[in-house]
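FORM 12-B: Structure-to-Sequence Request
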C-alpha cells in the first residue's frame, strides 16, 4: 500500500452561482487546486484519474455522467473519470475512491472534485430531489423530507434525555461566529440565542436556525503518492439502514461510530489526539450525535460540548472551523470535499483567520441521508 498525500486544494465560494454552470464551477475548483499544487510542489502533478462527486445534477440540472463532462471541459480527455453519488456523503465517498486508487498503486495522482447546483431550482422540486436520499418506498412516498426525518431524530433526542430545544443553539452560534473569518462562507453574520429562539419552524422541533442552507459550490483536492505536507492517514466508510424506522437504536448513529472507529484504528489514533473535527452539521442534532458517535462525548452529552463552549477554535474539540454546513453553506454532493479541503488547510497551517492553533491532526466526516452512509477521513501533518 502506498501512502496517500494531499498535494493541493481548491475551494469556490458557497452560495448562489447563477452565472456559472456545473462544469464551470467544477473547473474553477480544479484550476485552484492545480495552482495550489504547483505552488507547493513546484509544478503541476499530471493526474491519471478524476473522481467527481455530486448528488442532484441528474434531477435538478438534467445532467448525469459528470465525470466525463468535467474531464472534457477541463481539458483532460482520455483520463479515467467517474461520478460518485452517495447523497450528502458523495464528496467523502469520491475521496475514498480516489484514496483507494492511489493507495493501491494503480494511480499515482488522482483528482477529486465535488460540485452541486441547487439554487437554479426552487420549491417542491428541490425537496423532492433531496428526499430521494431516503427510502422512496417507505419514507419519501409518505412525504417525509430529510428535514422531517431529522426533526424526528431531534424530538427523540430531546425526549430521551429530558432536554429543551435551546441546548442546540450553540452549534448554530459557533458556526456563524467561525464563518465570519471565511470569505468563502455563505453567511458571515452573527446570530444570538434570542435569534435562535425566535426562528421559525421547519419541521418541529427543528427551526430555520437548525438547518444548513443548500447552495451551489465546488471544491477540489489532488491526491498523490508523492510526499507533501499533508498525509491522509485514514479513510473509512460505513453504512446503516437507509430507512430511519428500520433502526433499533435511533440515537446510536451507528455508521458514524463504525466509520470513525475504523479510521481511528487505521491511523492508530484516538479522539483525544484529534485537533479539529469538521462534522456534518446539516442539522444541529447531527452535530451532537456525531460528537457522541465519534467518541468526543458520552451518549446524550454531545450538546454539552457546545453549551460549555468546548467547540470553539481554541477549545477542546474545534468544529465548524470555517462555518460548517450551517454558515459556510451545504452544496450537498460537494460538501465532503469542502470539509477535507478545509481540514487540509488547517493542518498545513494555512487557514488564515480560521486557523486552529497548533493543528496537526484533523478529521472530516460527511453523512449521506439521515446517517445511512458515513465517510470519515483523518489528515495529519506529514
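FORM 12-B RESPONSE
SEQUENCE OUT:
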Amino acid at each position: 500500500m502506498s501512502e496517500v498525500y494531499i498535494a493541493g486544494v481548491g475551494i469556490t465560494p458557497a452560495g448562489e452561482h447563477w452565472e456559472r454552470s456545473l462544469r464551470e464551477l467544477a473547473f474553477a475548483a480544479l484550476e485552484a487546486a492545480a495552482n495550489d499544487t504547483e505552488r507547493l510542489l513546484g509544478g503541476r502533478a499530471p493526474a491519471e484519474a478524476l473522481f467527481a462527486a455530486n448528488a442532484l445534477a441528474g434531477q435538478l440540472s438534467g445532467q448525469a455522467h459528470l465525470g466525463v463532462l468535467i474531464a472534457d471541459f477541463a481539458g483532460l480527455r482520455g483520463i479515467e473519470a467517474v461520478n460518485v453519488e452517495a447523497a450528502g456523503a458523495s464528496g467523502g465517498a469520491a475521496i475514498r475512491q480516489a484514496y483507494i486508487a492511489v493507495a493501491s498503486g494503480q494511480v499515482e495522482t488522482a483528482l477529486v472534485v465535488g460540485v452541486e447546483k441547487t439554487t437554479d431550482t426552487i420549491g417542491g422540486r428541490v425537496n423532492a430531489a433531496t428526499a430521494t436520499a431516503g427510502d422512496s418506498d417507505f419514507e419519501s412516498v409518505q412525504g417525509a423530507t430529510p428535514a422531517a426525518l431529522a426533526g424526528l431524530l431531534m424530538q427523540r433526542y430531546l425526549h430521551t434525555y429530558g432536554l429543551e430545544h435551546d441546548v442546540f443553539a450553540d452549534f448554530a452560534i459557533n458556526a456563524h461566529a467561525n464563518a465570519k473569518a471565511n470569505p468563502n462562507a455563505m453567511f458571515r453574520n452573527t446570530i444570538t440565542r434570542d435569534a435562535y429562539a425566535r426562528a421559525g419552524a421547519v419541521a418541529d422541533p427543528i427551526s430555520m436556525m437548525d438547518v444548513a442552507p443548500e447552495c451551489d459550490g465546488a471544491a477540489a483536492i489532488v491526491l498523490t503518492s508523492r510526499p507533501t505536507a499533508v498525509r491522509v492517514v485514514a479513510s473509512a466508510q460505513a453504512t446503516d439502514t437507509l430507512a430511519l424506522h428500520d433502526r433499533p437504536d435511533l440515537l446510536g448513529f451507528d455508521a458514524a461510530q463504525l466509520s470513525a472507529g475504523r479510521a481511528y484504528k487505521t491511523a492508530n489514533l484516538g479522539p483525544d489526539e484529534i485537533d479539529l473535527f469538521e462534522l456534518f452539521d446539516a442539522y444541529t442534532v447531527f452535530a451532537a450525535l456525531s460528537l457522541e458517535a465519534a467518541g468526543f462525548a458520552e451518549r446524550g452529552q454531545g450538546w454539552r460540548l457546545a453549551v460549555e463552549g468546548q467547540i470553539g477554535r481554541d477549545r477542546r474539540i474545534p468544529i465548524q472551523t470555517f462555518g460548517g454546513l450551517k454558515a459556510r453553506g451545504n452544496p450537498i454532493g460537494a460538501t465532503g470535499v469542502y470539509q477535507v479541503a478545509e481540514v487540509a488547510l488547517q493542518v498545513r497551517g494555512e487557514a488564515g483567520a480560521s486557523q486552529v492553533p497548533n493543528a496537526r491532526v484533523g478529521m472530516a466526516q460527511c453523512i449521506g441521508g439521515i446517517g445511512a452512509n458515513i465517510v470519515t477521513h483523518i489528515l495529519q501533518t506529514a
